[in-house]
Amino acid sequence: MTDTKRDAEERLLQKAEELERVRQFVDETSFGADERSLSTDLSIVDQHPADSSDVLFQRELQLTVLQIIDQEAQQVQEALDRQEQGLYGICEDCGNDIPSERLEARPNATLCIDCQRTREERRAA
Q: Looking at residue 125, what is its pLDDT?
């Protein structure tokens, strides 16, 4: 294995470990208790919806964070799979090389900047 591939794999594995640590932290700090422990009230029964809306909003934010972490972890796994197939560093859309600067900044990138930009523009439209 060349130094470049080894460095890429190491960055991807570090990214995967980092994502797992963040996921565990969110799980432990956000979902380790029920709503009663998050509220200062003694009971959540007979509460006005506005009284519990903050708790609901916080739960939604926490779930969104977990979804982002899961997406990022999936991208890391896809990049590792592409590396095994000998396709790491090659854009999955156009087939051109992904610049090393991009891979250093975002080791799980599977698209070059131009193809990534095109996808994001299509999503926004």
A: 82
